[in-house]
Design a protein that fits this description.
Distance between the termini: 38 Å
GO molecular function, one term: ATP binding
Radius of gyration: 19 Å
Helix content: 25-40%
Strand content: 15-25%
Largest sheet: 6 strands, mixed
Strand order of the largest sheet: 6-7-8-3-9-10
Bound molecules: adenosine-5'-triphosphate
Number of strands: 10
Protein name: ABC transporter-like protein
Keywords: ATP-binding, Nucleotide-binding, Transport
Oligomer: single chain
Domain ABC transporter: 4-252
Order of helices and strands: EEEHEEHEHHHEHEHEEHH
InterPro entries: AAA+_ATPase (IPR003593), ABC_AA/LPS_Transport (IPR051120), ABC_transporter-like_ATP-bd (IPR003439), BCA_ABC_TP_C (IPR032823), P-loop_NTPase (IPR027417)
């Protein structure tokens, strides 16, 4: 059974078709890559999955439940978390506080409850702190937990953003170009964390990435988009041999 299923997704902006009839199935535990040239529709597809965009046509199922009409926060509560192409953290706040904010989807008492609920809120806060400390260990960012995010290097900020998505304990993690703008060493670290998230935390991952070396190294399955259509899919080996994919994208990426 697929964890996530997209059926015939169409998305229009005015007269422009950003996505034309995309169907796909993501299985539990997969690292599932979406690749394709600029403007192919990758981010639009991710936005349809997270709920930021509502498809013009088609349906989306998560754990066999139709989520097509659910808003982003309800999808997040079901276990779908995302990171953004451009870092969207609170730069003046510490690493720890940014990660604690990532826990808010799990707080029953809410951020501003007081009085009567104080005891429960305090207990939840302590539990949340445990979860976040475990993520801090996992991402090896113990020594920067009290630093304001804005003072960190780009690579570390991306790692904190990953941590914030992980703080939601997602079943499905959506990563939009997690390695963009990184140097080789930072990319290697990020690739290792993605593999560890998949293996140790048993989280399914959908990944948009332009670095083909990384994609082919770490993905289980690759889907290729071009002009809003799916032009190929398969294992990394299959996709690299697909003439349509080579013509539309890989030839250009390799050259
Ligand atoms: N909010 C929007 N309003 C209007 N058009 C949009 C919007 N978002 C995306 N598009 C259009 O939809 C098409 C697909 O864009 P999208 O950003 O999904 O591609 P992409 O594959 O993620 O590209 P890149 O690799 O450059 O990030 C493009 O033609 C783009 O101009």
């Amino acid at each position: 059974m697929g964890l996530l299923r997209l059926e015939n997704i169409h998305l229009y902006f005015g007269g422009v078709a950003a996505l034309s009839g995309i169907s796909l199935e993501v299985h539990p535990g997969q690292i599932f890559a979406i690749i394709g040239p600029n403007g192919a529709g990758k981010t639009s597809l991710l936005n349809c999955i997270s709920g930021l965009y509502r498809p013009s046509r088609g349906a989306i199922f998560f754990e066999d439940r139709d989520i097509t009409h659910l808003p982003p926060h309800k999808r997040a509560a079901l276990g779908i978390a995302r990171s953004f192409q451009n870092i969207e953290l609170f730069k003046h706040m510490t690493v720890l506080d940014n990660l604690m904010l990532g826990r808010h989807v799990h707080m029953r008492t809410g951020l501003f409850s007081g009085g009567l609920y104080w005891g429960r809120a305090q207990k939840e806060e302590i539990e949340n702190r445990w979860v976040v400390e475990e993520i801090i260990d996992f991402l090896e960012i113990e020594n920067i937990r009290y630093k304001p995010v804005g003072t960190l290097s780009y690579g570390l900020q991306k790692r904190v953003e990953l941590g914030r998505a992980l703080a939601m304990n997602p079943k499905l993690l959506l990563l939009d170009e997690p390695m963009a703008g990184m140097n080789v060493e930072e990319k290697e670290d990020m690739a290792r964390f993605i593999l560890d998230i998949s293996e140790e935390r048993e989280t399914t991952i959908i990944l948009i990435e332009h670095d083909m070396g990384v994609v082919m190294d770490i993905s289980d399955w690759v889907t290729v988009l071009d002009f809003g259509r799916k032009i190929g899919e398969g294992t990394p080996e299959e996709v690299q041999r697909n003439p349509k994919v080579i013509e539309a994208y890989l030839g250009e990426a390799a050259g």
